[in-house]
Specification:
Length: about 150
């Protein structure tokens, strides 16, 4: 989810980007280290790490010395091991308002997410992006306009 105020754009907290992409979030090894140092097993336990030797381990059970051997980290249900349908950290706080329950320590990829930037993270369903496009001086022009 975008970070309200960080770029001057106000995230509407509709939660849509987290619902659509949140099942694929991947923390960096530094995110894992940081959560480990902060004792955030409540976050770590939602991730499964695949190591160079082919073993798979719940991230909450990783030793710091194993973090350099991580090949892939992915979200997994801590009880069933299944891929979750949606990010487990997304919380609905009002009928149409959602927050990230780990906002202060969320993965780098979520901190850097900007749906209004053309490219990989561009998300045309984002209301911030739609409002931006409405304010754009080009918004009324069709492809026929000179
Ligand atoms: S960790 Fe937070 S910001 Fe990232 S997808 Fe989940 S709810 Fe959204
Ligand atoms: S889709 Fe846009 S408005 Fe909705 S939570 Fe994501 S960044 Fe915020």
């Amino acid at each position: 989810m975008a970070d309200p105020g960080r770029t001057g754009d106000e995230c509407g907290q509709c939660g849509l980007c987290c619902k659509v992409f949140g099942d694929r979030i991947t923390p960096t090894v530094m995110n894992l280290y940081s959560w480990h140092e902060q004792g955030r097993k409540d976050i770590l336990c939602h991730f499964s790490a695949c190591l160079e030797n082919g073993t798979r381990i719940n991230a909450a059970d990783l030793e710091p010395g194993q973090m350099g051997d991580i090949v892939v980290v992915e979200l997994r249900d801590p009880v069933t091991g299944a891929l979750p349908p949606v990010c487990p950290f997304l919380r609905r706080v009002e009928r149409t308002r959602y927050i990230c329950s780990i906002h202060a320590v969320k993965p780098d990829m979520c901190c850097n997410y900007m749906p209004w930037i053309y490219g990989e993270t561009y998300f045309p369903r984002c209301s911030v992006l739609r409002d931006r496009e409405k304010r754009s001086p080009w918004s009324g022009l069709s492809s026929q306009d000179p």
